[in-house]
Amino acid sequence: MEPTISFFSGFAPKDLLFLGEAAVRTMWISVLSISIGTVLGVIFGWILYEGKWAAALTVAPILDVFRSVPLIIQLVLFYNFAPIIGLNLDPFASGVVILTIYTASLVASVARGGIEAVDAPMRRAARSLGMSYWQDLRYVVLPIGGRAVFPAWVGVALGVMKDSALVSVLGYVELLKASQILITRTQEPFLILSIAGAFYFALSYPISRYAASLERKWAQ
Amino acid sequence: MIEIHDLHKYFGSLHVLKGIDLNVEKGEVLSVIGASGSGKSTLLYCINGLEPVQQGKVVVDGTDVHAKGTDINKLRQQLGMVFQQWNSFPHLTALENVALAPKIVKGKSKAEAREIAAQQLKHVGLGDKLDVYPSALSGGQQQRLAIARALAMEPEYMLFDEATSALDPELVGEVLETMRMLAEEGMTMICVTHEMGFARDVSDRVAFFHQGVMEEIGPPEQIFGNPQSEHTQKFLANVR
Ligand SMILES: Nc1ncnc2c1ncn2[C@@H]1O[C@H](COP(=O)(O)OP(=O)(O)OP(=O)(O)O)[C@@H](O)[C@H]1O
Ligand SMILES: [Mg+2]
């Protein structure tokens, strides 16, 4: 007996390609947000460290808001209210903006911890050699503090990559959204979600492995 | 020459240096002794501008360390400093530790900087440790690494802040030996130390600090043989 359904159809090889493309979009939005967010976060972390009470009154509460309000609420709010102030951003750009700020708010405390991990005598020794404040930051604090908090940063990066799934609520077709589309069509949630999960794993596993190997190298 | 005029240093309301007057000539080795908290470390920090001062001044080869227009990073190249804690940069090999500042501060080429570094490491007896990371070095070796790192900037003066205090007793000797070698080579040195033997044998003069005041200064024979101040006598009676 011939299947009579035309609207629903089974999982086909081209669907794998569809998911693959979506995975690339997940990667793309994550790479952008994590890299820009990290640079901003390091700057915020430095401000938190150096700014003392002035930073505690200005930057810190703003970062706290982004850290504590659920990402999905930030995304929806930003996407719907940005046009009011004249910002017409597509779902992708809105996602990048919010994920970047979110990453920055998380990285800021990691970065501050990194700076604090380099104790004062070490920095005095660097300065006593004639290094400027910035040379000390660049050649002493960054590598030493950076290594100290690298595992925490990797945690943030992997978390943001998974959280990028939330951008799907804006209609951006990344991995999760693509899975939902296919599930609706094929009615095979178990299969599709397993494949999507495998894609997420394929994106993060190399990062964790690479991070682990770096940490091993630094440990000696 | 290092000239210190009426130097006062406060930490908040704590008066830590109470009017220090002291000149150190080129080629001289001065040891600074005194009880914990008497302001010895603070004096060194004021000399190379790591701590600001509230009154008086420090002049190094004619340059006022704390004056507004002074390029402090340039001046510090003349003032090598070795701390109680060795502070080797843990992410760099011994050679890279020593080569870093010549490269980034003095703008030497990578090859030149490594050349200087290798030379200084040999100088302090670490010629066979060039590519070793600090974590694989003993405290004494790390402290000699710190000396080489300071020497690589070709300073005119070396400031030692209890360079041997944090070391296990059996490692003290090698560091003192290195300091003694520098003294014999004619390096101008100010050594804050608890090693009375070193102070007696190596220094041209010894200064005794007591509660932020330089109580007494003179040749080692005077300080150890015939101390003039009552506080000096008490201090020395206790350390012996
Ligand atoms: N950064 C600082 N802030 C506040 N007080 C300080 C600071 N550094 C030093 N002091 C205080 O200044 C006084 C002198 O300290 P300093 O470290 O110069 O003494 P010291 O003679 O080197 O003693 P030690 O033999 O223990 O090294 C001490 O009372 C110390 O507590
Ligand atoms: Mg001290």
Automatic annotation (TrEMBL), chain A:
It comes from the Bacteria. InterPro entries: AA_ABC_transptr_permease_3TM, ArtM/GltK/GlnP/TcyL/YhdX-like, MetI-like, MetI-like_sf. The keyword Cell wall biogenesis/degradation does not apply. It is a multi-pass membrane protein. Keywords: Amino-acid transport, Cell membrane, Membrane, Transmembrane, Transmembrane helix, Transport. Its main location: membrane. SUPFAM superfamilies: MetI-like. The keyword Phosphoprotein does not apply. The chain crosses the membrane at residues 27-49, 92-115, 136-158, 190-208. It is found in: Cell inner membrane; Cell membrane. Residues 23-211 form the ABC transmembrane type-1 domain. NCBIfam families: HEQRo_perm_3TM. Belongs to the binding-protein-dependent transport system permease family. HisMQ subfamily. This is Amino acid ABC transporter membrane protein 2, PAAT family. It comes from Shimia sagamensis.
From TrEMBL, chain B:
Keywords: Amino-acid transport, ATP-binding, Cell membrane, Membrane, Nucleotide-binding, Transport. It is found in: Cell membrane. InterPro entries: AAA+_ATPase, ABC_ATPase_HisP-typ, ABC_transporter-like_ATP-bd, ABC_transporter-like_CS, MetN_ABC_transporter-like, P-loop_NTPase. Residues 2-236 form the ABC transporter domain. One of its GO terms (molecular function) is ATP binding. Signal peptide: none annotated. It is a peripheral membrane protein. It comes from the Bacteria. SUPFAM superfamilies: P-loop containing nucleoside triphosphate hydrolases. Belongs to the ABC transporter superfamily. This is Amino acid ABC transporter ATP-binding protein, PAAT family. It comes from Shimia sagamensis.
